[in-house]
Design a protein that fits this description.
heterodimer, A: mainly alpha, ABC transporter involved in vitamin B12 uptake, BtuC, two-stranded antiparallel sheet, 2 strands, globular, B: about 500 residues, Rossmann fold, seven-stranded mixed beta sheet, six-stranded mixed beta sheet
């Protein structure tokens, strides 16, 4: 009988922290090629349309960054949360609540052309996401409720609230009864960075967030305390760090970033609120956080990669009329192979013969 | 019984087991005859436990041969071992708290479930071997010694030909150790072979017929313990002469630096022990020891003294100031330092570097400015601890989990001592630590106390307490006996107190 066993390595392979995502990407490319072959497509052409063509124009790069920005922003928050051992699966709902609160400001005060409106919307976006994140944080601290379940279920609540609002109180009176708000006034929109492209000033928020996240996780004592609370709760108690604070920080930070991303989407490419605001950014950002090894710089790369997968997915939909679910398949494969490669960092495979 | 008995009940030939980065067993050979009590002697990390797990089928050897009654066997899992007639009493019991003794035994017994019959057999065995246990009592009512009897009876029910005991006395009072030895001698006289694993030389000299000594995974010698001196055995086991510990005379402060006054608290654990009216006073310059079998309220007392749990303000005092209601950080600011029993996960974060683990409790030492960590200072502190306390590692960037138990303990104790505490509380300072590191740690504790700090040591090892402490008290079922100077008490008396015999433990009317 042959048995395959996993043995823990004495020390994790150091270079594999960078190697694992690359191996995962390579395996994803290999297996997707098999998939394309099975669909009767030339894998090389398809991969070119998927990964290279979207970035061959300036406008393509603008679209790439426009999609990467919310992914990176949300991914940073999720990475902070996971460092605190808080698994936020509810970034989608926090994204929505941030967009709703900011959108309400935009509709209520948009006509006044106030210079403070956009900054106020930025604050409102973060506050909306944090308020939504405060619910699972409170329930976890007070009642030890599992944050994975609570955040997941709150996604549906948020999406129904949005649906109610765009069909009711916030519906555009001149909108021919379409379920959407009135288009935001220019004072409620991010100015474009370059003429004729959709990339706008909101990307600066993401850049600042990357720096802040690095400072927080790598240099700040509060970030350290939070990581201790996530990695070893008994050690945190021993050192006198408050466990509940780790949970609050982990969830509020991820709520703020997701809410901001929602606001950026509403006050950017969308320009209004519609029943569906996000193409799954809140979930994809979980993959971004893991591909990025929960480090701010890694999350930037993860966000750029996953954003490219979105664009490539759209491109093959249009030019090869492949189904939209292909993007999801790609994401799934990438995460699957990444987690598998991670196992190899910590363990090694041994094959044993047994009599 | 026409078959002639082979010379050896169990024989091991060249047993080798490699783990990543370490060879736990390297070509180990040993033989145990019928009715022989054979010691496997070695320090923590010498490979004793791995070897026993191989014999019991819980771990698979990479190479080597096991002969049972002269015939080669493959012991793929513990069920096979039990069928051959091998029984094992682990160091950490595998019993269920919330059910009765006989139900615990039934779980591990093959065949039809017949509780009344099993109870009768348990009673019979417990009488025959002098292992008093009531089969119908709930397990969480039993003392540690009684639990061990349950484990042993569970093995005896299988009618074993070889019984393995892994450090069986670490949880027993001296008196209970003596009773256990009688049981083992009776069993051996009936022809049952016994493999006795320990690092305690006096026990092995008293009990065992022969000994195999392991060091770093290899057999370094065999001996007949009754003919060898303790010093010879120790030299074989450690590889060098035992280090000597200096103890200068005490000059204590007049006022106690750490005081508990009438400390009572319910345990947070449903099977834990409530503290009842515990009072103690530790003066600067002395080491105060608390003996006791584990699970008698040590954990509760420690968390109340450290601040991980709080009580009424005046129940705990540091340098005369009430701190009973203050949290950990407030007590640390007042000069308290603490080394918990669990190193990985409480005293240190396993996945973090030694530098980060220095930051864990030393952060007040100027390592954080305006909320930001001064990485250079942190690394410098960690490096100083590593150098001063001889921690073997690759540097401050090594993760805590990559260190051996003894080295990590040296780091944690070094970290706490480097904070120049007024009061240091240490739980199980040398549990699982090799002899050389133990001596170093004990010396460091003595030196700290002689510099004027109050040191409180909680330990299950009487030998250790008598070696380093100036006064000793005993905790039993959440009550603390009055402390006695070391010279005014002895192992015998402390042992009786550990078993709850003494006026201090009579429940108040």
């Amino acid at each position: 009988m042959i048995r395959i066993v996993l043995e823990p390595r004495p020390a994790p392979l150091p270079f594999m922290w960078i190697g694992a995502p690359l191996i995962a990407l390579a395996l994803t490319v290999i297996f997707s090629s098999i998939l394309f072959l099975a669909l009767g497509l030339n894998p090389l052409t398809t991969l070119r349309i998927f990964f290279i063509d979207p970035l061959s124009t300036l406008n393509g790069i603008s679209e790439w960054l426009l999609k990467a920005s919310p992914l990176i922003l949300i991914g940073l928050g999720i990475a902070v949360g996971i460092r605190a051992n808080v698994w936020n699966i509810g970034a989608e709902g926090m994204f929505t609540m941030g967009a709703i609160l900011a959108g309400w400001l935009a509709i209520t005060f948009g006509a006044g052309n106030y210079p403070w409106l956009l900054p106020a919307m930025i604050v409102a976006g973060a506050v909306g996401g944090m308020a939504w994140a405060a619910i699972p944080a409170f329930l976890k601290v007070k009642a030890n409720a599992n944050e994975i379940l609570v955040t997941l279920m709150l996604n549906y609540v948020a999406s129904l609230i949005l649906s109610y609002l765009v069909n009711g109180p916030m519906q555009d009176p001149q909108g021919m009864n379409y379920p959407q708000t009135a288009p935001f006034e220019p004072s409620a929109l991010f100015p474009p960075l370059f003429e004729g492209m959709r990339i706008n000033a909101s990307i600066l928020i993401t850049v600042v967030a990357v720096v802040l996240a690095w400072l927080f996780l790598d240099r700040s004592f509060v970030g350290f305390q939070m990581s201790v609370g996530g990695a070893a709760p008994a050690a945190a108690r021993y050192a006198g760090f408050k466990q509940s604070r780790s949970i609050w920080i982990g969830l509020l930070v991820s709520g703020a970033t997701a809410g901001l991303a929602g606001m950026m989407e509403a006050a950017g490419p969308l320009g209004q609120l519609t029943p569906v605001l996000s193409p799954g950014y809140g979930f994809t950002a979980i993959i971004v956080a893991f591909v990025g090894r929960l480090t701010p710089l890694g999350v930037v790369f993860g966000g750029l990669l996953l954003s490219l997968l979105y664009l490539g997915g759209e491109a093959v939909q249009m030019s090869l009329s492949l189904p939209a679910s292909l993007t999801r398949t790609f994401q799934g494969m990438l995460l699957f192979f990444l987690l598998a490669a991670d196992v190899l960092i910590l363990y090694r495979v041994r094959i044993r013969r047994r009599a | 019984m026409g078959v002639t008995e082979p010379a050896h009940r169990l024989e091991l030939r060249g047993i080798t087991k490699r783990y990543p980065g370490i060879t736990a067993n390297d070509g180990i050979s040993l033989a145990v005859g019928p009715g022989e009590i054979h010691a496997v002697l070695g320090e923590n990390g010498a490979g004793k436990s791995t070897l026993m797990k191989i014999i019991y089928g819980a771990v698979e050897a990479d190479a080597g041969e096991i002969l049972w009654n002269g015939a080669p066997v493959t012991i793929g899992n513990p069920a096979v071992a039990r069928r051959l007639g091998i029984g094992m009493v682990y160091q950490h019991f595998s019993l269920f708290e919330s059910v009765t003794v006989v139900e615990n035994i039934a779980v591990a017994t093959a065949g039809k479930l017949d509780l009344p019959m099993l109870s009768a057999r348990v009673r019979e065995l417990s009488q025959r071997y002098g292992l008093p246990v009531d089969p119908n009592r709930l397990l969480h009512h039993l003392s540690v010694g009684e639990r061990q009897r349950v484990e042993i009876i569970r093995c005896l029910l299988q009618d074993p030909k070889l019984l393995i005991l892994d450090e069986p006395t670490s949880v027993l009072t001296p008196q209970a150790v003596r009773r256990l030895f009688e049981v083992l001698r009776t069993l051996a006289a009936e022809g049952c072979s016994i493999l006795y694993i320990s690092h305690k030389l006096d026990e092995i000299q008293e009990l065992c017929d022969s000994a195999t000594i392991l060091r770093l995974g290899r057999v370094v010698g065999t001996a007949s313990p009754k003919q060898s001196s303790a010093a010879e055995l120790a030299r074989l086991m450690v590889g060098s002469a035992l280090p000597h510990i200096h103890r200068e005379p005490v000059a204590t402060t007049r006022e106690p630096r750490l005081e508990a006054i009438g400390l009572s608290a319910k345990s947070e654990d449903p099977f834990g022990t409530d503290l009842v009216n515990v009072s103690l006073a530790v003066h600067g310059g002395e080491i105060f020891g608390i003996a006791g079998v584990s699970g008698n309220g040590q954990g509760e007392l420690l968390s109340l003294l450290s601040g991980e749990r709080t009580a009424q303000a005046d129940m705990v005092q540091l340098d005369g100031k009430p701190v009973g209601d203050r949290a950990v950080s407030a007590r640390r600011t007042q000069g308290l330092a603490f080394v918990p029993e669990e190193r990985l996960g409480r005293g240190a974060v396993p996945a973090m570097s030694l530098a980060d683990n220095a930051l864990l409790t030393a952060h007040a030492d100027g390592m954080v400015r305006r909320g930001l960590i001064d990485r250079r200072k942190v690394a410098g502190f960690a490096e100083a601890v590593i150098g001063k306390f001889g921690v073997k590692c690759t540097g401050p960037a090594s993760t805590a989990r990559s260190l051996s138990g003894g080295n990590l303990q040296k780091f944690i104790i070094g970290r706490e001592i480097s904070l120049k505490p007024h009061v240091l509380i240490v739980s199980q300072p040398t549990w699982g630590v090799d002899v050389a590191a133990s001596a170093f740690i004990r010396q460091a504790l003595i030196d700290l106390s002689r510099q004027g700090a109050a040191v409180l040591v909680i330990s299950e090892e009487l030998e250790e307490l008598f070696q380093i402490c100036d006064r000793i008290a005993v905790i039993y079922q959440g009550r603390l006996s009055p402390a006695k100077p070391r010279a005014a008490t002895n192992v015998e008396e402390v042992g009786l107190l550990m078993a709850g015999v003494g006026p201090a433990f009579r429940p108040a009317a």
